[in-house]
Amino acid sequence: MKRIEAVNNFVIKFANVNGSGSASANELFAKAILRMGVPVSPRNIFPSNIQGLPTWYEARVCDRGYQGRRGGIDMMVAMNPQTWDADVAELEPGGYLFYDSTRPLPPSKFRDDIHVIGMPLTEICNAVYTDPRQRQLFKNIVYVGALSVLLEIEPEVLEKLFSEQYKGKEKLLASNVQALHLGRDFAKEHLQSPLGIRVQRSNQVGDKIFVDGNSAAALGCVYGGATVAAWYPITPSSSVAEAFQSYCAKYRVDTETGRHNYAIVQAEDELASIGMVVGAGWNGARAFTATSGPGVSLMTEFLGLAYFAEIPVTIINVQRGGPSTGMPTRTQQADLISCAYASHGDTKHVLLLPEDPHECFEHAAAALDLADRLQTPVFVMSDLDIGMNQRLCQPFNWDDSRSYDRGKVMSAEELEAGKDFGRYKDVDGDGIPWRTLPGTHPTKGSYFTRGTTRNAYAQYSERGPDYIYNVERLLKKFATAATLVPQPVLRPAAQKTRLGVIYFGSTSPAMNEALDVLTEAGIHLDALRLRAFPFPSSVVQFLAEHDEVFVVEQNRDGQMRSLLVNELDVNPARLVRVLHFDGTPITARFITQVITAHVQHGVMSPQRESKERVF
């Protein structure tokens, strides 16, 4: 029988039951491989209930450093009878199935083209532990121990991780190490090892760090100067505010006085949270909120106020599956339209599109600068895949000499000198007016802030020319934003081509691998990774240089494609949809198959676009 053979290059998936304590054990497994110097990219795919439903943990081990999902599974650790059939079906021919063999299963439950490894995990744990909860929890550690033998993961690395996790809790440390060696001892004596896939110590990790996007965004807000956060809990964004609070407690407390130089408010709902952020921004504080799609829906009227009254606001949107409450613990890139045009009337907002935790850090700090500079709401469009999963990425860098860009803020000296102050007046053609902060001058520079129409000097007016002046000036400001936002990243093909591909955000890791695979197959594409909306002029140029451009995104309706058509007047027929929206992160295999089918046959059905739906 065929056997998958690979060193430091395989995909392993754990199928568990939510609430069984498996997540920490699976994370321990992934971190051990990372500690051996081998790049690993894990993804926790879990349900939105507390416990009982299926959960999966997929780890991509790849010495080439690919961080996206590949597609296909080389080894399945099947611990959930509910999903057995689907889990076994996912295995590649020649792959490996590891399962709890305490209860015998009929031959019909297996496949002839895979290698089966049975281990009586429940029986082993029942013999050693009397407490039912211990039996369940330590079963996860026992299978990690067995896998460490089968895959040649160094036990010293696992023990070191335990010692770090349970520092000062020696009883827990000893019991976990015991469970680890229960698994290792059984595997050595009874299981055939090693397998065709294995881990070998390497040095491919380098100086990269392992962090989730929500923590990175929170740290970016600290470094970017945010002093106010108002939020309401919602999956998958809650840990942004929690991490911000943790970082502020460490970095924003005066060592001499003990004074906390920050304000964090858990509001009663999303409406209140965005209202607080708008108020703080109006007062001159750098403020942000973190939310997800349903929260943005509730915030839209305040966002319209901030846009029209020109108040700096930063919103970190960790996107999830929708509409309505949708799939709270699944990932999508489906809030593009709702955020770009949030609120009623003629409204446009700046969106930043990070690809990984490193850019979550950078974009969060940049958003606070841009919000001040442009006097407008700015969205950081993360998603669950980036936000809640740990990634290897470049270390965060910060120039201590960097000063915050507060934009056009008129000083007391300028007001005293008689400088003309029209709160909504365009003085230099970039569409951005001057503002003052409360208390700047005792008698000058004050103005009335309203959400209704006014003239350039903030005086109430319903005259058509005054309204047209304001909304056209806001368009000028939006055009200015296109020159200030993070610019797209071009990856040219190895040879001249009239085919291009546009992608963004969390699609990037899988896209990087897909481009390599397509090139090896003789399909050459120039690739442009978008990093922001509005679109800079380089996007217009890229579209003009190609006959067909694939637009790869994770939503049903091709929202990025719609933005390109709407904003740049590009012919829709030239933009080919590549859509993935089952709630799991897109795979390199999916992208490759869809683009290859279109290039070879010139057609792409909706069924083809959304074929991959296996959790």
Automatic annotation (TrEMBL):
<dbReference type="InterPro" id="IPR002869">
    <property type="entry name" value="Pyrv_flavodox_OxRed_cen"/>
</dbReference>
<keyword id="KW-0560">Oxidoreductase</keyword>
<dbReference type="Pfam" id="PF01855">
    <property type="entry name" value="POR_N"/>
</dbReference>
<dbReference type="GO" id="GO:0016903">
    <property type="term" value="F:oxidoreductase activity, acting on the aldehyde or oxo group of donors"/>
</dbReference>
<dbReference type="Pfam" id="PF01558">
    <property type="entry name" value="POR"/>
</dbReference>
<dbReference type="InterPro" id="IPR009014">
    <property type="entry name" value="Transketo_C/PFOR_II"/>
</dbReference>
<dbReference type="InterPro" id="IPR019752">
    <property type="entry name" value="Pyrv/ketoisovalerate_OxRed_cat"/>
</dbReference>
<dbReference type="InterPro" id="IPR029061">
    <property type="entry name" value="THDP-binding"/>
</dbReference>
<feature type="domain" description="Pyruvate flavodoxin/ferredoxin oxidoreductase pyrimidine binding">
    <location>
        <begin position="221"/>
        <end position="387"/>
    </location>
</feature>
<feature type="domain" description="Pyruvate/ketoisovalerate oxidoreductase catalytic">
    <location>
        <begin position="19"/>
        <end position="184"/>
    </location>
</feature>
<dbReference type="InterPro" id="IPR022367">
    <property type="entry name" value="2-oxoacid/accept_OxRdtase_asu"/>
</dbReference>
<dbReference type="GO" id="GO:0006979">
    <property type="term" value="P:response to oxidative stress"/>
</dbReference>
<dbReference type="InterPro" id="IPR002880">
    <property type="entry name" value="Pyrv_Fd/Flavodoxin_OxRdtase_N"/>
</dbReference>
<dbReference type="InterPro" id="IPR050722">
    <property type="entry name" value="Pyruvate:ferred/Flavod_OxRd"/>
</dbReference>
<protein>
    <submittedName>
        <fullName>Ferredoxin oxidoreductase</fullName>
    </submittedName>
</protein>
